Amino acid sequence: xxxxxxxxxxxxxxxxxxVYGGNSSEREVSLKSGAAVLAGLQRAGVxxxxxxxxxxxxxxxxLRQMQEEDFDRAFLILHxxxxxDGTLQGAxxxxxxxxxxxGVAASAIGMDKLRTKQLWLGADLPTPPFAVCDQQSDLDxxxxxxxxxxxxxxxxxxxxxxxxxxxxxxxxxxxxxxxxRYDRTVIVERWMSGDEYTVAVLDGVALPPILxxxxxxxxxxxxxxLANDTEYKFDHGLSPEQDKALRCLAEKAFSxxxxxxxxxxxxxxDENGEFQLLEVNTAPGMxxxxxxxxxxxxxxxxxxxxxxxxxxxAD
Length: 315
Prior knowledge:
Layout: H1 7-13, E1 15-21, H2 27-43, E2 47-53, H3 62-68, E3 73-76, H4 87-95, H5 104-111, H6 113-122, E4 130-133, H7 139-146, E5 150-154, E6 164-166, H8 169-180, E7 186-190, E8 196-202, E9 205-206, E10 210-213, H9 221-225, E11 231-233, H10 240-257, E12 262-269, E13 275-281, H11 291-298, H12 303-312
Parallel strand pairs: 1-2, 1-3
Antiparallel strand pairs: 4-7, 5-6, 5-7, 8-9, 8-10, 8-12, 10-11, 12-13
């Protein structure tokens, strides 16, 4: 069944710019997300068009691109630094253009895994033990404190780019070199041996949690975007009480960072079955493999309805 917004709502939206692309390592994912969002808005009857920042046909720098275009509000679907980290949000604030997703501060914090974890700890929310490391760190001491295995993460990347699972200080040293190609700040985190879940949040309310099952060492870039054997389960085996607790934790984590509009919170269980917060995504993917549209469908929300609901939150 097709979904069309009413004429009053369409008029209130005005002309909508779907801003995607960018120049981060997640550009290709953003291009796919942007194309899907643009098509969904247009199917719903929204007067929407695309702005591909740093695209081959763009002969203007990004800020000038947006200044030259005539639009009333923006649907932001860039991933990674330069689009998801508060810089683009700040530019739109200066231009006086409403936009989807979190504001400047929450976007900047959410893009920074280290600051997010520190904030959650301050809010008494659970997150795995970690260390910030570089080549000069005492890696044997890190392994002793965190145990084996560990996960190595660039602090400001998304889509699992630059991440590695390691089991020794020798592997840790190699993984640090890999992660440092993407970021100067690298987190080493205790490995969580339990199940992994992701919880989409729409206008402050958690959608049905998804259990992620992969044959890979962890839910890496290939498992997210390329593999056809990754399983996404709503029949996750959690009790009603656990399901409620997981949704509540995701909502608290989202709110603690100051996020608004929409996003996604990633969670794992530790060896005792306790939920541990991994990260928050303030502009998650919207591709055919993406998790927010999947959770929305489970809630009875079509893709067209989802993008319109997200657009409603733009301010």
